[in-house]
């Protein structure tokens, strides 16, 4: 059986809406009755939030309200027909409902967790310092010549010592994709390069080229460092939204870790 469509999924959650309407207070205005089942104002408001998301707070026209009410009526009709045909007893539907319950309880628990542990300005500034300010460093502008053997790389270094032009040598001898651009790699950070290459560049001064070949998994490199610059991190205000998300993610991960530390989890097989 295929997974339920979006419309069918909406029908499966109608039970909760119907239940809510049954226990609603006397002030919960009944907007429509479908074969005896009331659709109340609170059900309408809940459906509006679910259907429109952030736009739910905006004022709706009478036509828009009626359209949403019509959708609720259609949903209730489909739901009642699904019960009439015994869909609530279908094993696949029961499995799908169980999965929906798991997802709903999980998302609601995380929502409550974040409500109980609001992100503070201090926590965001501490995370900003650790993740952004202390992560700032240098960027390098360099060229390289990539060849297959150490002997070839040593011969290139000899030519450079004799005054050969680095870019022209790269065009003639480099097997790397940057060869046709004279080996130009543009600006990059150390983390963007494999470690032996990044370590070699970090030891060089602008204008210098490799005195010994640098070996990586790609082959043998002769590198020329052209320039360096300090990386200026974005301001706190520029990344405040991202930092807030990082702090929330840490709250969630700490919560999950605390659950794991108290639980007995045994993996029986790989999926």
Walk me through this protein's architecture.
It is built from ten helices and six strands. It has 271 residues and is α+β, with helices and mostly antiparallel strands. β1 and β2 (37-40) form a beta hairpin. 52% of the residues lie in helices and 15% in strands. The radius of gyration is 32 Å and the shape is elongated. Mean pLDDT is 89; it is low at 1-26. α1 (6-12) packs across α4 (62-84) and α6 (121-133) packs across α10 (240-262). A four-stranded antiparallel sheet has the order 4-3-6-5, with helices on both faces. The protein has a two-stranded antiparallel sheet with strand order 1-2. The two termini are 21 Å apart. It folds into three domains: 6-92, no CATH class; 121-132 and 234-261, no CATH class; 138-230, Chitinase A, domain 3, CATH 3.10.50.40. The relative contact order is 0.09.
Short characterization:
With 271 residues, this protein is of the alpha+beta class.
């Amino acid at each position: 059986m295929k997974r339920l469509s979006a419309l069918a999924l909406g029908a499966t959650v109608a039970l909760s809406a119907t239940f809510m309407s049954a226990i609603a207070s006397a002030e919960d205005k009944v907007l429509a009755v479908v074969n005896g089942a009331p659709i109340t104002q609170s059900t309408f408001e809940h459906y509006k939030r679910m259907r429109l998301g952030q736009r739910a707070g905006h004022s709706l026209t009478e036509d828009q309200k009626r359209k949403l009410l019509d959708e609720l009526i259609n949903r209730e009709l489909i739901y009642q027909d699904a019960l009439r045909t015994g869909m609530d007893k279908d094993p696949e539907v029961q499995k799908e409902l169980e999965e929906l319950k798991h997802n709903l309880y999980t998302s609601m628990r995380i929502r409550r967790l974040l409500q109980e542990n609001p992100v503070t300005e201090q926590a965001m500034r501490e995370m900003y310092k650790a993740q952004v300010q202390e992560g700032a460093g240098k960027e390098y502008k360099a060229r390289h010549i990539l060849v297959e053997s150490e002997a070839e790389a040593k011969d290139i270094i000899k030519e450079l010592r004799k005054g050969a032009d680095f870019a022209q040598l790269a065009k003639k001898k480099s097997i790397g994709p940057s060869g046709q651009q004279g080996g130009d790699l543009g600006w990059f950070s150390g983390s963007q390069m494999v470690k032996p290459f990044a370590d070699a560049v970090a030891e060089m001064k602008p204008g210098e080229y490799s005195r010994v070949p640098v070996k990586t998994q790609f082959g043998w490199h002769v590198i020329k460092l052209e320039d360096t610059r300090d990386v200026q991190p974005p301001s706190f205000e520029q990344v405040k939204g991202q930092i807030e998300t990082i702090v929330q993610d840490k709250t969630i991960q700490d919560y999950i870790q605390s659950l794991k530390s108290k639980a007995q989890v045994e993996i029986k097989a790989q999926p």
